Amino acid sequence: MNSLSKIDFESLSQSDLEHAxxxxxxxxxxxxxxxxxxxKISTDKNEPAWLLNIRLTALKKFKEFSLPSWxxxxxxxxxxxxxxxxxxxxxxxxxxxxxxxxxxxxxxERLKIPEQEEILLAGVGAQYESENIYHNLKPQWExxxxxxxxxxxxxxxxxxxxxxxxxxCVPIANHKFxxxxxxxxxxxxxxxxxxxxxxxxxxxxYFRMNSINQGxxxxxxxxxxxxxxxxxxxxCSAPKYGSQSLHVGCVEVxxxxxxxxxxxxxxxxxxxxFNLNTKRSIVQKNGxxxxxxxxxGSGVTMLYPCTVLAGExxxxxxxxxxxxxxxxxxxxxxxxFINAKNCRANVVSKSLSKDxxxxxxxxxxxxxxxxxxxxxxxxxxxLMFDDKSISNTIPEINCHNTSSQISHEASAGKISEEVxxxxxxxxxxxxxxxxxxxNGFLDEIVKTxxxxxxxxxxxxxxxxxxxxxx
Length: 470
Fold this sequence. Notes:
Elements: H1 14-18, E1 27-28, H2 35-44, H3 49-64, E2 86-87, H4 102-110, H5 113-120, E3 123-128, E4 131-137, H6 139-142, E5 147-150, H7 151-157, H8 159-165, H9 176-184, E6 188-193, E7 203-208, E8 215-216, E9 219-224, E10 229-237, E11 245-247, E12 250-255, E13 260-268, E14 273-275, E15 278-283, E16 288-295, E17 300-303, E18 306-309, E19 315-324, E20 329-338, E21 344-353, E22 358-367, E23 375-384, E24 390-399, E25 405-414, H10 417-425, H11 430-446, H12 451-466
Parallel strand pairs: 3-7, 6-9, 7-10, 8-11, 9-12, 10-13, 11-14, 12-15, 13-16, 14-17, 15-18, 16-19, 17-20, 18-20, 19-21, 20-22, 21-23, 22-24, 23-25
Antiparallel strand pairs: 1-2, 3-4, 5-6
Helix pairs in contact: 2-3, 3-9, 7-8
């Protein structure tokens, strides 16, 4: 770990990630999904009629869709054994940590969230179960017109803006899990960056599930206006109970002309969790969108951030790390749709598989007939630690003009005995040698993160190397 880091992530332990609070819930509904539950949640949140209509339409679509016929087997996911809404604290939407329930505050302190906010962040949102318990933006950015708000609060304060953008990037009927999300979503973030404003500090949201069989369904809606720039970081974790949990979040990002946005995430749910997230951005002329993702936790992950390059000279970068430990399937990738001339897309995917874990890169590229002179490069590298682990690369490429260029390269390998003997001959232990190899393998992506968050990701990988993530 870089010694310049101001936050001591070396002290972050597996018990910090797996710790469960002994919460007495203000609201914890019965398990299962129903129209009655959806109406109850919408009423409690005082939502407008148009938003309830979205929820009810989505519930109908969810019931009509079948489970995906491709990818990991998730047929054992028991939707009726999931609790779709829980309010873990009487105090929600706090602006200071002193207002937060003390036990919940201690959980976020273990995860270094208040410390990170003080040192390097422009703002922080912290969600616990189904609602934000803390959300704050530093005054210097608020004074410039930046909006960084709990999504439920934003519905009340900025209803016209929310109605304008909600579900316009990720459609309700995109697939079964987008429909589920829109039916039951709660919490999340609304970020609006006005024209010509450049936020030089990251904003962060951290999502925490605590109780057994919990579901979390936060909605993240981000609008970056012309010539603006920002960076948003998402983190998450949950205790291990030995019984299913479900995460079905949704991220919608609108990057306008000449704007730049980076979305970084470190997803570290417990192996009890099905992580079935949907993320998509629409990028206009000369805009730039960068996705940086680290997927280490959950029993099954299906996550394919998508970028639609809608304007000329738009660009996207997808940089991803997947670490599949024992009992884990990391099915991740990227989707890129190019609809305009002279666009550029770059995908770099790094996967680690250990103790029988399964890592899969699943990608889709579509270049339409009008997207002339566009270039897409894809590089997938896999590193396996043993003979029982698995790595897959499954690309789908469709190009409908002759002037565009698409390249796809993939490689997979194991750490050989010869390499380990070389380290041993120089007095380097096997554990340290493996760590050095992994750090070098992942450096291209890790170095794109701010120092403290690179340190956090490195520590989570170290914990995964020591034992299976819980």
